[in-house]
């Protein structure tokens, strides 16, 4: 299964967290699955998985939403990578990013976790930080609000107006990484908005 990509949306399980900033990675997985008409099914690796393709005859995509909480996402991700025989360079993790303004995407491979405990746990479980990341900007909290509370809050009414476009752009970025590689995706999504 050399042409299988494991694409993971980080988040927290259950209805309490569905619409929160921390779950934007899972929202992107929902968008990718919906584009292909594929439902998520429970997987023995403690995740919900939708198996699909970029397009007929192209790379296989395994879209995954771990059932674990964000800070312990690594176990399900590593188990899925083993199950599907996917090397870390074929893993894409989609997650929220405090240090990037809302409505902005940043793509990278490897490097540090930037204080993101979900990314830290995935890197530890995979034994390497060398996997692609689609970092979805949620911005910093206003005033003195604790960032830990901010990420667990739902998006504001103003942000919710733009959120579908941001989720769609993040899904497009995942597809571009698979199809054309990280550098081509960075050139497209790091360009200033017109």
Using the alpha-carbon principal axes, give the shape: globular
Low-pLDDT segments, ≥5 res: none
Q: Please state the average pLDDT score.
A: 94
Strand order of the largest sheet: 2-3-4-1-5-7-6
Task: Give an overview in words.
Helices cover 36% and strands 21% of the residues. The longest helix is centred in the C-terminal third of the chain and has 24 residues, at 157-180. The chain is globular, with a radius of gyration of 15 Å. It has helices at residues 24-36, 74-84, 117-126, 147-150, 157-180, 182-189; strands spanning 4-9, 41-43, 47-53, 60-66, 91-97, 105-109, 132-137. The mean pLDDT is 94. The chain is α/β, with parallel strands linked by helices. Helix 1 (24-36) crosses helix 5 (157-180), helix 2 (74-84) packs parallel to helix 3 (117-126) and helix 5 packs antiparallel against helix 6. The N and C termini lie far apart (39 Å). It has a seven-stranded mixed sheet with strand order 2-3-4-1-5-7-6, with helices on both faces.
Give the gist of this structure.
With 194 residues, the chain is α/β, with parallel strands linked by helices.
How would the blueprint of this fold be written?
Layout: E1 4-9, H1 24-36, E2 41-43, E3 47-53, E4 60-66, H2 74-84, E5 91-97, E6 105-109, H3 117-126, E7 132-137, H4 147-150, H5 157-180, H6 182-189
Task: Spell out the key features of this protein.
194 residues, seven-stranded mixed sheet, alpha/beta
